[in-house]
Write a structure and sequence with these properties.
single chain; mainly alpha; 77% helix; globular
Length: 283
Amino acid sequence: MTWQLLGILSLISYSISVLLQRVLVKEKGSDPIAYASFFQLLAGLIIGAFGYLFTPMRYPDLRPIILNFILMIVLYGFGNLFVFKALKNTEASKFSVIFSSRAIFAVLGFSLLLGETLTISQWVGTLLILCAAAMVSLDFRRVKFSIKEAYAFLAAMFFGFAVINDRILLRQFDVFPYSFLGFVLPAISVMAFHPRSVKNMKVFLTRKTLINMVILSLFYATSAITFFFALQVARNSSQVISLNSLGVVVTVILAIIFLKERKRMIWKIIGSILGFLGLLLVT
């Protein structure tokens, strides 16, 4: 399977998970820290169960890569925490646009640290995708940014750096064991520093919410697995993260279809066209 197809599967799965997150994270009584930990842990357990049933789940010698391994736990632990704090305090449209800027952090990191730079046309494609994300998400006549959006910016920064670290670790790891550890260990570390969050997880154990959380985790786990496979097989990691940024546009299209969010349709159509042109240039 080519990295392009893997990337498209990843962004579609991610977009569906974002739609579900919009509903779940707004539920009364939901604690962002508890949410982040529970969500990560559940997704990791799903990945681990599938991995141990159907794959070898081989683990490499961690000693040569221990610093990168610890960095993975820190970046994803804080990154997911900032994601859910942002979704709790920021409009979904603003969050989507700000969070898509993780592509810029990652691409610059790939260029400076790993020498995996983009061509001029691929840079143009990346910028078109980011412009499309802003166009389909924001009403520029009303948009105002405040300190609340800092969480979304921090989430983008941490996830952008995490992807660079992923690329390094995936040279040693198989995808399933890496994904399993990449979800479970950050969740456990966050719970260790915030033990009160464990008590607050009871809000997610009601039948309806738990079913929704399992569905959300399945889609997010699928997105992570396909993204890591794409990152592992692609010659240029910058292309993968640029393609992944198109998820904002796909999310808007799915919201039009399933959530009937049809305001600013003209801008959304124009943005979708720009996103598609960016996709062609990037890939």
